[in-house]
Design a protein that fits this description.
With 210 residues, this protein is of the alpha/beta class. The chain contains 4 helices and 9 strands. The protein has a 9-stranded mixed beta sheet with strand order 3-1-2-4-5-6-7-8-9.
Length: 210
């Protein structure tokens, strides 16, 4: 299988339970909830995405013809830092492309593998950390994992819907955009009143990292 990667870069994880951890981000091109084209946003299932996942023209982006090729590029991007290496497969929707061959090839490079997914696809075996970010209007097929990170607020998608699911961590992340300040206050208030929900901020944006 060939892999279309929008961008490949090293940064600090900015969100959720792994905030502050060094990571290689492998952003796959493509999503099943929005084409990525602005002219399609208003008719998409997910309308608030702030990420460019169209094409392969981002930093480190390319079409990789084999899992070994992509695994080698991920290893080069990590750059030989000490400790167990960590890669986050994201998108778009990473589970449209992440497969057994790539998991095997990346594990062979001694990487811990994380995904950030909208939860509409089942993951292959071997993923070490699963972060699910549900979207209103999309069927949630992946109702288990390490963390659920709910962008808040979303019409028709109250946090109470997910409270009993099989996750270790429950996060509310304020929706970015013109109402970010208001959304942050609302998310913080909800977390105060509803443990075990915790507030997740996009700290990479606050400190100027990609």
């Amino acid at each position: 299988m060939a892999y279309a990667v929008k961008e490949l870069f090293k940064t600090l994880q900015g969100e959720g339970a792994q905030t502050g951890r060094a990571a290689v981000f492998c952003r796959f091109a493509g999503c099943n909830l929005w084409s990525g084209r602005e002219q399609d946003r208003e008719t998409a299932v997910c309308r608030f995405c702030d990420t460019d996942f169209v094409g392969t023209d981002g930093p480190g982006g390319a079409k990789f013809t084999t899992a070994d090729d992509l695994a080698a590029a991920i290893e080069r991007t990590w750059g030989g830092a000490p400790g167990r290496a960590y890669v986050v497969f994201t998108g778009g929707e990473p589970l449209l492309q992440l497969d057994d061959a790539l998991i095997k090839a990346v594990h062979a490079k001694n990487f811990e593998i994380a995904i950030e997914t909208n939860g509409t696809q089942e993951p292959p075996a071997g993923v070490d950390w699963i972060c699910v970010s549900p979207k209103a209007g999309a069927e949630l097929r992946l109702a288990r994992g390490d963390e659920i990170k709910l962008v808040y607020p979303q019409d028709g998608l109250a946090p109470e819907i997910f409270a009993g699911l099989d996750f270790r961590h429950f996060f509310l992340q304020p929706m970015d955009g013109a109402a970010r300040e208001q959304n942050t206050a609302a998310a913080a208030a909800y977390c105060l009143d509803n443990p075990p929900w915790r507030l997740s901020l996009q700290t990479h944006k606050l400190i100027g990292l990609p």
